[in-house]
Each structure stands twice: as C-alpha cells, then as structure tokens.
Amino acid sequence: MENIIHTTSDYSKFKFFNGNAKIKSAKVTKIMQSIKKYGQINVIVVNQYGEIIDGQHRKEACMSLGIPIKYIVQQINNSHLVDLVRDINSVQKNWNNTDIGYAYSVKSNNKEHYKKYLDLTSLGVSHSTVIEACTYLSSGEEQIRNSYFDFKNGNLEIPASVFDKVKGQILMLKDSSIEKKIWNRIYFIRALLKLRKQNDFDVYTFIDNFNKFPHQWKNAYTVEENIKSIIAVHNYKNRNKAKYYIS
Question: Which residues contact 216 (CB under 8 A, 6 or more apart)?
Fold first, then answer.
C-alpha cells in the first residue's frame, strides 16, 4: 500500500489532526482554481490511519469540486506525526509564522512559550513586533531564547515577566490614538524600546502628547527617523525634554 497512488471519492477516509495548520479558505479557493485547469497534480500524503500529513488544503479543494482524490500512504510512527508535518511545511515554506507557532504550541517542549507568542500575535501585531519586543525587553535575563532562529526551531522562550511587559506595551499602544500603521512597524517598536531605556524619556508622556497633538508626528521609515519623531512629540510643550541620541 505504501507509496502506491490511490484514488477515492470517499472523503471520510481523510482525517485532520490537532497540530496541523488550520484551513485557510483563500488558499483552498486558489487550489480549486488550479485543479480546475490542470487537475490534481500533487497527491495527498496520509499516514496509515488516514491522517493527512501533506495536502489538507488540496483535500478540501477536491471535496469542494466533487472530484476523486489522489493520495499515497506513508507508515508513520504516530508520536512523530506533528514533528514530521511541521518540518515538511517549514522547509517547503507552506506555513506562515502563525502556523509554525500553533504547531509548536500543540506539541513541543516549549509549547507554553508558543502559547504566549500566539496570545501576543492575537492582539493584532506582527510576528516581527512580538519577536523584537521580546528580545529588547528580555535584555539582562539569563538563558533567554527568542530570536527568529529560535522561533523556527522550536526553542522560543518568553518568560512570564517579559510576556507581561510586551503585552502591556502592545495594549498601551492599541488604546492610544496612535494609528496602527505607525506603531505596528518594527522600526517604530525598535525606536520606542531604545528610548524607554533613557531616564529622560517617559513613554506615557509621549502617548499623552500624541493623543493631544497628533499633528506633531512626522512620518518615519527608519529607526533613527522614528526616534526623532517620537522625541519631537514627547518634547512638545513639555518642560522635561528628552534628548535625541545615536547609539
């Protein structure tokens, strides 16, 4: 049975399992359009229990089109199933960062850290914003692993203290009048985190001034430009001036 291409219209043969990426309707629609033109070129891969290892979006597309599904069976040790699916999709770049984070949150030694990551991204911020904020706010902590490489390889670590700081900052920015297109950029986050280390800079003063005088903000596209713009808003009608610096 293994590696032989089978065909079936019995869609009940196929099963999803917890730990695989969630179905995205837009992706199913694109695959349906391709299958209409060329047929099902890539087969679906399942284990001996019918659980889909590779091709769950193709399965949904074929089922929506009402056509038979081509598939092959691979004998897989069930304890390795999530690891295998994660590795396949990470290497082939079929998964985005949320998919990777979700898979590690289901089964990995660091699953509790990935649950924290998903909690932060669920606030509507980018992957880069979460990783960069965790990196800056974990400075001084020992044995912290939250780089892009650590994330992709299942080694992400977000201590509770760092998680609370990052979540607090995100919520503070979300509740302000600062437009998301401004604060949810990595250069803005880097600039703000750098300035927060200065004794003469107060983030609450900056946000309060932005709420009152949004016209003082100048568009910024680099870390240094964001620092200048943040400082300008912070210092406007404020006796306690913060100084611009280059590290």
Answer: 209, 210, 232, 233, 236
**Whole-number Å distance between alpha carbons of 96 and 98:** 6
- pTM value is 0.61
Q: Contact 146/131 with Cβ under 8 angstroms?
A: yes
- What does the pLDDT read at residue 80? 72
Answer yes or no: do 22 and 71 share one domain. yes
Note whether 142 and 130 are within 8 A (CB): no
Domain span including residue 236: 177-247
Could you tell me the CATH number of the domain that includes residue 40?
A: 3.90.1530
Is 214 inside any structural domain? yes
Tell whether the model's pLDDT for residue 92 goes beyond 70. no
pLDDT digits (tens, 9 = 90+) for 4-60: 889 999 999 999 887 777 888 998 998 999 899 888 888 898 988 899 988 899 999
Q: CA-CA distances (angstroms) from residue 57 to 11, 76, 229?
A: 13, 20, 45
